[in-house]
Design brief:
Blueprint: H1 23-28, E1 32-34, E2 40-42, H2 45-57, E3 76-80, E4 83-86, E5 91-94, H3 109-119, H4 130-142, E6 148-152, H5 155-170, E7 174-178, E8 223-226, H6 231-240, E9 245-250, H7 266-277, E10 280-284, H8 296-301, E11 307-310, E12 321-325, H9 327-334, H10 348-363, H11 365-390, E13 394-397, E14 402-407, H12 416-420, H13 424-436, E15 439-440, E16 446-448, H14 455-469
Parallel strand pairs: 5-15, 7-8, 7-9, 9-10, 10-11
Antiparallel strand pairs: 1-2, 3-4, 4-5, 6-12, 11-12, 13-14, 14-16
Bound molecules: pyridoxal-5'-phosphate.
Residues 99, 154-156, 159, 182-184, 251, 256, 284, 286-287, 311 line the site of pyridoxal-5'-phosphate.
Amino acid sequence: MPQSPPAAGMRPQGPVLAMPTPSLRTCLWAGRARRLDGAMTRTLDASSRMYADARRYLAGGVSSDARRVDGVPLFVDHAKGSRLWDVDGNEYVDYVLGQGPSVLGHCPPEVVEAVAAQAARGMAYSAQHAAEVRVAERLCALVPSAGRVRFNTVGSEAVHAALRLARGYTGREAILKFEGHYHGWLDPVLFSVHPALDAAGPADAPAAVPGTAGQQLGRPDDLVVCPWNDVPALRRLMEEHAGRLAAVIMEPVLCNTGAIEPDSGYLEEVQHLCREHGTLLIFDEIITGFRLAPGGAQEHLGVTPDLSVFGKAMAGGMQVSALVGRADVMDHISTGKVAHAGTFNSHPVGIAAAEATLRVLDERRDEVYGTLYARGAELMEGLRSAAAKAGVPMLVDGPGPVFQTYVTEASSVRNYRDFATTDRAAMTRLHAALLDRGVNMVPRGLWFMSSAHTEADVAFTVDAFADALGTL
Ligand SMILES: Cc1ncc(COP(=O)(O)O)c(C=O)c1O
């Protein structure tokens, strides 16, 4: 297992033309080799055998559609800090981080200790316990929109709770979502995430395109789809549906279609329109929460929604989500008017992880967020220069703790239609080439930073990226 740099004599031999010399590279590229045609290869014998077995027992060989890739999916053996190791012993600098949760890196000691200690005291109470009150109190202190809290397990559930609450509070049925935004895999919102353009309708009045066969479509008017970063379109659609919209839901920084920040003043306009129409504004902070700031994108961008949902980074790698919001709205749950339940809600082990994670994020905020932003900016700059040097048209954009690489000539990407013009097939090839070189990013070109990423990780990644660009 290449967990520490192997001695020079242990480097792969055979058809290796040029192995780089720095020790981190030697370590990460052990087990990989450059073929005579210049391509990098990884040994994936164990992974391939496991995948063949997996396909016999797991539908499609995976447990989430997000893990389907061309070729053999990553079979992880273990992870630590900024690194992953697969079952073949290949080591990767990891920018997927469990699709975002591991904001402190894999296995932060504070979280591991808290989880182990709680597991020994009981794993499933389905009853009240002290830590959930402490975590709710900290959420109310950290998150601008949090007057009251309810816990769930995963993001999709928290979104479901938020939408039901918005309907129960307003007595209205319809929801407005934005094209390109993802709010989980449940039927009411799995529309128009990455729709085929020939089905997507006009850019300023997109069609609601279902995401899957078998989806319950609901009544056509219950879901309105709007282009993002477009105030006139939102104004027009809200007027068209006046008196019907319970909520407008959005990712306040769009991270499921590139990593797109709202235009200056956009969120304020959305908030203003929502207030004018008596519609609740919901921020889906499943990705941005605790990643952009201890109070999420709403703290970072200075706009406070009525309701918000959190998940992923809030428990440092364990599965906890939360619905938070204005006390008078959340009171519809307090009184039992709007139903909210779940066997695993405020799961003691998950809550222990959340308590430890939030303590670190709050008490060491300068160090953690300083690293997330500085390291993210360094990596973005390195990738930009590598692309410029290689002559590959590329846009590297986003806040830093999360960002996107796009293969495109465009100088900005502001919404789904812009994203759809980028060369997504090239990004998929780049993803595969990076895996061969010891770098794991989200296949669509998204990069998550953690406070465990080091300057050496960044330097290694930029070198690997420069090399991988040669394959495009
Ligand atoms: C913005 C956003 N909302 C909701 C979800 C759904 O969360 P989960 O996969 O935990 O159900 C995701 C998942 O990636 C997400 O990115």
